[in-house]
Structure to design on (263 residues):
């Protein structure tokens, strides 16, 4: 991510936090705009053209989307195109991220991260589902409808909107990659980090609390846990937060020992 995009993303995130009227309709509109902009090189180029005056880019937003989306959506898009982006694809990513954050804001009491994680595990455990959602052969509308059917009564409206919208517009990204990014964005919006914990057996409530507290102290921010049970780790834990991996599993220690004995 270029420095221009980093600064632009910070500005749009701040605008979202300071805005009003952000609801699931706004989130859905932002997802739709991200699809429209991502599918049109002409439109994405015009909106991300740093050589054009910001006023000209804002006019494109008003002309193309002004009459079809809510004022809160127009306001967020206006802030986005006023910024300088490293590339047109970065702008599309940013609009999509705004949509995910808006969905999290719209249902603040729902544990969206956990719902996204559960669905990601369902996908991981079902190769046929992963193929159906990730194949280039299926239509985007059909993929979105499949997600809505699978999550009906099992997940919140916010989570369903996020997942269905992302699989409709994957842009060469794998389904689990989309879900992992969405989890990180939602967690960041709510001021915490997400750790994926791989253990040989389920953690007790006390163990989870101790681990969460230790990680929160280490990273200086609240940390929520998503636990994956994998008997192959034998014992101990493997913890991943963003790009950091803390591997204290027995299987890894045994593998290291075998390597040293063999070498």
């Amino acid at each position: 991510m270029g420095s221009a995009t980093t600064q632009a993303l910070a500005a749009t995130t701040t605008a979202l936090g300071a805005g009003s009227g952000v609801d699931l309709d706004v989130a859905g509109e932002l997802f739709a705009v991200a699809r429209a902009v991502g599918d049109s090189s002409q439109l994405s180029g015009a909106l991300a053209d740093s050589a054009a005056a910001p006023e000209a880019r804002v006019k494109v937003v008003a002309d193309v989307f002004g009459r079809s989306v809510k004022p809160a959506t127009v306001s967020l898009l206006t802030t986005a195109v006023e910024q300088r982006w490293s590339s047109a694809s970065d702008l599309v990513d940013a609009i999509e991220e705004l949509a995910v954050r808006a969905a999290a804001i719209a249902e603040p009491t729902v544990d969206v991260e956990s719902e996204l994680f559960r669905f990601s595990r369902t996908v991981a455990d079902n190769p046929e589902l992963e193929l159906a959602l990730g194949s280039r052969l299926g239509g985007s509308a059909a993929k979105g409808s499949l997600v809505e059917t699978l999550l009906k009564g099992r997940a919140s409206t916010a989570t369903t909107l996020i997942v269905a919208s992302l699989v409709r517009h994957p842009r060469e990204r794998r389904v689990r990659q989309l879900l992992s990014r969405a989890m990180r964005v939602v967690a960041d919006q709510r001021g915490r980090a997400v750790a994926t914990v791989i253990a040989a057996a389920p953690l007790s409530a006390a163990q989870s609390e101790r681990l969460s507290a230790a990680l929160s102290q280490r990273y200086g921010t609240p940390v929520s846990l998503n636990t994956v049970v994998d008997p192959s780790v034998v014992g101990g834990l493997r913890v991943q937060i963003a790009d950091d991996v803390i591997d204290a599993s027995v299987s890894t220690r045994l593998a290291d020992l075998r390597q040293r004995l063999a070498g």
Observations:
- The mean pLDDT is 92.
- Strands lie at 193-199, 223-229, 237-241, 244-247.
- The chain is about 65% helix and 10% strand.
